[in-house]
Design brief:
This protein has a domain at about 15-250. Helix content is about 65%, strand content about 5%. The protein has 21 helices and four strands. The N and C termini lie far apart (about 65 Å).
């Protein structure tokens, strides 16, 4: 995820109204500044998932808000189906640390290569050579080399900053380490918990270390202790300013506090804990929060609860449908759409469930289409007749879906075909072109469709004879 700007004024409302929009603009500008690193970070997660066979639900390499003057970029994310093997989860979470750091060192070393012309004496590596020598060579390099060196420096520092694990990655890694060690994951004692409010400062220190190592050499890293102290002191000051309330003293930032609460509920639900009704109600209330990030986290929390307690979440089905009707942010809609998939057997208004699925299936945004395929498949599992009129949409959208959603669309078509193949038979040629699909689940479900059609044709022939 992109790093958030740490300072949010709260003490004086009038001051907040002036400062908060400015901080939003600065936060989005910072997200653009580290854009290469964000993309590389999420690619690191995605590539590792593909290499390890971990199912990917959604990939967003970079999120840009619809209104950058009012909403902040959420960075990027890769949503996965958690594998049963803990070591896979660990490697997926830790992948960007190795990938981004290695790429950052390579880019920063490129600065040395670019500015050093043949015949120059000395080296720019090692702690015995000051940064001044590198700066001197940069000045003497000429505009073309300077431009290339500046590009390498920008990309290198962006990769270094995002090479440090995000708060979510830290929590995932600490959780897996705790489970591997044979004890329950306690977020209040995890690495991610302790790093949550210091994440920006830790990322900055890590960036400084990697940048110095890449530009000057590893030994030089230990010569900048004063700089690290300055970063820690400035970060502590910003934290106090961000969380100090004139009435209540030092308190948690309200947005962060709500996000943390929703995240704790999500983690507890994912660990199999039954969530009390009042906490589920609190998550539903957060769906109306002004912060996109809070609404996104509340939706993810409801999705996690719905896996084991669908009937409790389904009590709010009317509210969920209403939020989906009015919610404009794709990042806030997608976890709620996932929630509906888990509620399929508990939802009373199945016609509305099917309608939401079909409408989402034809959305312009590919992320929504992916989720729509899952809801249509869920509705088909309840009753294929609910989505029998969506066959045309399912066939049209198949080529645009990612692996998992494509398998969901194929499942919906298979269930419809097994109930009444006549609705699918006109599309047989187009559907069976996916027999050699790279995803095994798609191939299996296409075969089910073909078998259902063959069975119907065989029955017709025998009756004629």
């Amino acid at each position: 995820m992109a790093q958030k700007m740490p300072f949010v004024a709260r003490s004086v409302p009038a001051f907040s109204r002036v400062v908060d929009p400015l901080l939003t603009v600065l936060s989005n500008a910072f997200a653009l500044l580290i854009l290469p690193g964000i993309v590389a970070h999420e690619l690191g997660h995605y590539v590792t998932c593909r290499l390890l066979g971990v199912e990917v639900e959604e990939v967003v390499l970079f999120h840009w808000p619809d209104d950058p003057l009012r909403q902040r970029s959420l960075g990027g994310w890769v949503s996965t189906v958690e594998p049963p093997e803990r070591w896979r989860s660990f490697l997926v979470s830790a992948a960007p640390l190795a990938g981004n750091t290695g790429a950052a060192l390579a880019a920063l070393y490129g600065v040395r290569v670019v500015v050093r012309r043949p015949g120059m004496e000395g080296t720019v590596a090692g702690s015995d050579v000051p940064l001044a020598l590198l700066a001197e060579r940069f000045v003497a390099a000429g505009l073309p080399r300077q431009s290339l060196a500046a590009l390498c420096l920008w990309v290198g520092t962006a990769l270094a900053y995002t090479g440090f694990p995000s708060s979510g990655d830290l929590r995932a890694v600490s959780k897996q380490l705790a489970l591997i060690a044979g004890r329950a994951a306690d977020r209040s004692a995890s690495i991610g918990y302790y790093a949550e409010y210091a994440h920006g400062e830790l990322s900055t220190i890590y960036t400084v270390v990697v940048t110095i190592a890449g530009l000057v050499g590893v030994r030089a890293v230990f010569e900048f202790g004063d700089l690290y102290v300055l970063v820690v002191l400035s970060g502590t000051t910003l934290f106090v300013l961000s969380n100090y309330d004139g009435t209540n003293g030092l308190t948690a930032n309200p947005v962060r506090a709500r996000m943390a609460h929703a995240e704790q509920i999500e983690e507890r639900a994912a660990a199999g804990e039954l969530i009390p009704r009042n906490e589920v109600d609190a998550l539903v209330d957060l769906l109306a929060h002004e912060s996109d990030a809070v609404r996104n986290r509340a939706g993810r929390g409801l999705r996690a609860v719905a896996v084991e307690q669908p009937s409790m979440v389904a009590e709010w089905e009317e509210r969920l449908f209403e939020v989906l009707r009015t919610e404009e942010r794709v990042a806030c809609r997608t976890p709620l759409l996932n929630t509906l998939v888990y509620l399929r057997a508990a939802i009373e208004d199945t016609d509305r469930l099917a309608a939401v699925g079909v409408d989402t299936l034809t959305a312009d945004d590919s992320r929504l289409r992916d989720k729509g395929a899952g809801i249509v498949a869920a509705a088909a599992e309840v009753d294929p007749a609910l989505v029998v009129d969506a066959v045309d949409e399912l066939v049209e959208v198949l080529p645009t879906l990612s692996d998992g959603p494509r398998a969901n669309a194929a499942l919906a078509l298979a269930l419809i075909a097994e109930a009444d193949a006549s609705h699918v038979e006109p599309y047989r040629e187009r559907i069976t072109s996916y027999r050699d699909d790279e995803y095994e689940k798609v191939r299996d479900r296409i075969q089910r469709i073909d078998d259902a059609i063959e069975s119907t044709e065989g029955g017709d022939d025998s009756m004629t004879e």
